[in-house]
Amino acid sequence: MYPPHCPVCDRIYADGICADCRKKLFVITEDFCMKCGKPLEDTQREYCPDCSRKRHVFRQNRALLSYRGPVKLSLYRMKYANRRDYAEIYGREMAVRLGPWIRRCKITRIIPVPLHRKRQRKRGYNQAAVIAKSMGRELHLPVDEKTLFRVRNTVPQKALNDRERRRNLSGAFQIRKGAELPEGECVLLIDDIYTTGSTLDAAALCLRQSTKCTVYAASIAIGG
């Protein structure tokens, strides 16, 4: 009754992203910032201009796609049109493309960036959690939705500049009492879109201060 669809063109397709749509996506394969994973215009540089100016809390972020072209509409439908099936497909794609890097990082668990309960109730699901579970199945890694939770229902980030984003997210996350991670854990934070890294930094800071773990991150798409 509900056949699978390509998450880009939304046509019925049984095997993830169809061949035509793959040609339209900007897959990040090389020449990316070694901190945030953004594609580099100057291939001689190690870091993008943003990461050259500021420090991030997470150790490294990697992204599957550049946030250009048809992926923008695809991710909008994933978040706001109840297309959680898209998140499962993108999670599998991330596991395949980023799997070797994830294994090199010695990740011990995957943690999706949590939504506030009010926003999750309204949307019906957390797209980052769907992505994380799809990746966990492919990579045989546990997905932890209990340790980190969101205590403040922050305003949407898209209309804010970088400084406003950091202020908006200050104190937004907490570690659930009694859910501290064992020493030596290496965590992979999952979000759908990386813009400035403020959300991942806020979540990573909470994890590092409370649990002393090492934090990496990954996202479907990254701006730039």
From TrEMBL:
Xref: Gene3D superfamilies: 3.40.50.2020
Q: Out of the domains of life, which is the source?
A: Bacteria
| InterPro entries per record | ComF/GntX_DNA_util-trans, DZR_2, PRTase-like, PRTase_dom
Q: Which Pfam families does the annotation name?
A: DZR_2
Q: Which residues form the Double zinc ribbon domain?
A: 1-51
Q: Which family does it belong to?
A: Belongs to the ComF/GntX family.
Write down what this protein is called: Double zinc ribbon domain-containing protein
